[in-house]
Amino acid sequence: MLIRKFFLFLLITVVSSCSLLRDKDSSGGGFLKYKEKYSLTDKSGSFVVEREVGPYSKQKKYVTKYRVLSKQDTSKVLEQSTAISTPGVLGKKFRVLRPFKSQYNVWFEKKKYSNLMWIDLKRKGLMVKMSSPEKQWNGTKFFRFPRGTGLYCYYTQVIECAQFTGFLNKAIKNKGGEMNFHLIWDGYPYIQEQFLNLANNPFENAILKYDGATGDGLKRFSLNVGANVIIYFVNNDLQLSKVFWVSQGLSMVAE
């Protein structure tokens, strides 16, 4: 079992007196599988996003793929990431997706910046290997896991990570709730150059809260991470429909 001795009890608080995530049927967890195309707008312009999530290798791993394409030429990739997690349990009862490995590429002024992240079990932390045209963003760094709930989610996999635990369904059913975890910025350190007020670290404390249903039937969740709030909307199948990161001028809407 992945980092069994390191992971602590999963803390998921829902506004309800009932117990959480006791079994697979009641929690509604499991693997989401879908592909979607989105319109992305931020301070640098308008783009097309292709996003694909689902299990592979006989459901032993779970993958989220994300690509940002030029709106004028959709064959031109401007940013891409792949995040891989593995299913597991905490406290012998709570299902989680455990970060396993991720890769991120972005092009700034036609120059490629890349990272590769993977879990180092022996050292109980995260390895980040960087490759770029700039000296300060090359080489390999180690980051020890911070203390906390023992629940970690990739930034590009937040909704799927929360859905797999059963939190999304439980929070919707109980009309309220929150999930405490550590976010892993799988775009580190390059995402810190694109957005303001992010921790200069791949880890950051985060809380995902359920805000209620919208008039068009979507379910709204807000992610509080550091000084930022990111709003997610999911449909009845718990698939990502919209994302708004107002402070950064970012919106992403399914086409």
Secondary structure topology:
Elements: E1 12-13, H1 24-27, E2 34-42, E3 45-56, E4 61-70, E5 77-90, E6 94-108, E7 111-120, E8 125-131, E9 139-144, E10 152-154, H2 158-165, H3 167-174, E11 178-184, H4 191-194, E12 203-213, E13 219-225, E14 228-234, E15 240-245, E16 250-254
Parallel strand pairs: 10-11
Antiparallel strand pairs: 1-11, 2-3, 2-16, 3-4, 4-5, 5-6, 6-7, 7-8, 8-9, 11-12, 12-13, 13-14, 14-15, 15-16
Report on this structure:
The chain is mainly β. The chain has one domain (12-254). The protein is built from 4 helices and 16 strands. Strand 4 and strand 5 (77-90) form a beta hairpin. The radius of gyration is 18 Å and the shape is globular. The N and C termini lie far apart (40 Å). The model is unreliable at 1-27 (pLDDT under 50).
Overview in brief:
This protein is mainly beta and 255 residues long.
Descriptors for this entry?
disordered N terminus, 255 residues, 16-stranded mixed β-sheet, mainly beta
Q: N- to C-terminal separation?
A: 40 Å
Low-confidence stretches: 1-27
- Please provide the ordered H/E string of secondary-structure elements: EHEEEEEEEEEHHEHEEEEE
- The averaged pLDDT comes out at 88
User: Which descriptor suits the 3D outline?
Assistant: globular
Structural class: mainly beta
Helix count from the secondary structure assignment: 4
Number of strands: 16
Number of domains: 1
- Estimated helix fraction: under 10%
- Beta-strand fraction estimate: over 45%
Largest sheet, strands/sense/barrel: 16 strands, mixed
What Rg do the Cα atoms give? 18 Å
